[in-house]
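re: that complex we talked abt at group meeting.

here r the seqs, copy pasted straight from the sheet so there may be weird spacing, ignore it
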Amino acid sequence: MTIRLHDTATRQLRELDPVIPGHVGIYHCGLTVQGPPHIGHIRKEVVFDVLRRWLERAGYDVTIVANVTDIDDKILAKGEEQGRPWFAVAYENERALHAAYEVLGCRPPTYEPRATGHVPEMIEMMQTLIEKGHAYAADDGSGDVYFDVRSWPSYGELSNQKVDDMLPAPDAPPEGKRDPRDFALWKGHKDGDPESASWPTPWGRGRPGWHLECSAMAAKYLGHEFDIHGGGLDLRFPHHENELAQSRAAGQPFARLWMHNAMLNLGGSKMAKSVGNTLMVSEVVKRVPAPALRYYLAAAHYRSIIEFSEEALAEAATAYERIEGFVRRAVALTGPVEPGEVTLPFAHAMDDDLSVPAALAEVHRVVAEGNRLVTENDVEGLRLALASVRAMLDVLGVDPLSAHWAQSSGGDDRTHEALGTLVEALLEQRQEARANKDFATADRARDQLAAAGVEIEDTAQGPRWKVLDN
RNA sequence: GGUGGGUUGGCCGAGAGGCGAGGCAACGGACUGCAAAUCCGUUUACACGGGUUCAAAUCCCGUACCCACCUCCA
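got the structure back, here u go
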């Protein structure tokens, strides 16, 4: 079984060919923690969480490293604006990011290094680059260190651009630069900046430029050559281009394959704080169940733009409910069934550049088949179908019976038990009334339960109930 | 100006030369006391204009529009 993934660098599907057989090392760019995560940010997390789950199911040992950029211009500005230390802003938003992982069932990365914790590694890398003639300290006394774009002939290879076609990099005043397209590896300390936002280097005090941290941290935790580098498509240039240039120029082969997820748009443009069209994860999960949001974000192919709409989100929630309904119904007949094997069409779909849409079509096919087995009361067949559906849902991270989702719904056990006793009592009364053809009483019981948010479903095995999510 | 990606039915969303992915919605039927859920069935497509081909949503050329990047961005 081979997995093929779209490689941004070569713009074609390539077979996954790990540096270490049986192991996959993935680096994907985390957030600049200048604000809480919106659903566009978390789309990336869901995409890479699904990739990880699929690789693990294929038997790979997966290491995931995702950085936290905890210092940059905006974080400093926020700190200033809010009258508190920049690191307090960064840390608060980092915690919000972790909460979003948790609420959407994204397993944390193997490690999440912070930029500010890796200054020595960055200094080392700059020294190497300067020695090799690919970087230089600005001679304008700014303390900035720049990468020399002209010294690296393959600069532009990732985004397929020629240096001459590029606009100048405005990350620093151009005075100290040899070429306006040179980018900052390191930013010298400025007078207005807090002292705590600077670290000593051979070139004076200063702070990390954005791009260098990823090169330094990927090398530290994944080695000089690793398998997959990922992130949002908007990071392809300049961020990933610069990472690639730095690392290669420093003599490291770097990532073998580049994966980029498409953006999530709202109102026709990329969800972004600067546009003001953001929807926070914490807000959206109040409107739809968290696994339904995850289903929505995972259901489109990762390289397709998602144009967010409330209607589409509601549709996804309905589709997910259909699957969840089957799982509930099935497990009531079979008793506990562990996830089994995914079906062949599902596996083929996932192996083909994570074709989740095709994989979901297969889930729905097995669900429909399973629903027929429920009607036929074929418990043995149902066990197989349920095991298979659970396995497939597990890959996508939306198995309603998984420890993660099962615990997060419907309150604690004792409350649930108490509620169950009451609901069962009402259902008994309803059954009795129905037997006596007293339908007015029977419907009243159903209405009462509905008003309380409890939905009942009549099955061949008697009525079943569930608490509606929202 | 440069580099990529896109435009599919009422809606979402796959596919990438021939056989109508899937979901949601709608309609009809089965089941039901009535519903809900479920099952069975039905309907509506490939931005526009040319071309290649026995055959084009799919390949080629052109046009329009949209998105992303070349500023911070998942």
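couple things i noticed - Chain A has three domains: 17-266, 310-407, 413-467. The mean pLDDT of chain A is 94.
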